[in-house]
Amino acid sequence: QVQLVESGGGLVQAGGSLRLTCAASGQIFSINSMGWYRQAPGKERELVATITSGGATNYVNSDYADSVKGRFTISRDNANNTVYLQMNSLKPEDTAVYYCNFRSRVLEVWGQGTLVTVSS
Predict the structure, then answer these.
(1) Residues 6+ apart with CB under 8 A from 56
(2) Euclidean distance between CA atoms 61 and 41, whole angstroms
(3) What is the pLDDT along the chain (120 residues), one digit of tens a residue?
């Protein structure tokens, strides 16, 4: 099994920054993808960004999504099985519960979520 522990959420003012951290533990497969999704009240959960164990990144690609790419940066530390999401220039529209995700060919695990609230 794989367990995910998220941290870094909180209340920030518009224009501020937050850094989310997700640490994976347990039986980690070397080939995997980790990332962040978010869900705002009344909306479907959406992709924010993912990063593979090889370092390939993927950011949200949607006509109605805000410009995440350019403001957010995903990275990972394979030695510690940890993924980060650096969020800059935060907007109230970024307010949501952010979920860490771990995915391999045989397993998918979700974190409990961490709340990010951006005030005006």
Answers:
(1) none
(2) 20
(3) 899 999 999 999 999 999 999 999 998 888 999 999 999 989 999 999 999 999 999 998 765 556 787 899 999 998 889 999 999 999 999 999 999 999 999 999 999 999 999 999
65: its two tokens: 């999504």
**Secondary structure class of 92 (helix, strand, coil):** helix
What phi and psi values does residue 86 have, to the nearest 5 degrees?
-85, 120
Give the amino acid at 119: S
CA distance 111 to 8: 13
Alpha carbons 82 and 31: distance in angstroms, whole number: 14
Answer whether 94's CB lies under 8 Å from 30's CB: no
Expressed in angstroms, the distance from the first to the final Cα of the chain is 40
d(CA 23, CA 48): 17
Q: Give, as one character, the DSSP assignment of residue 69.
A: B
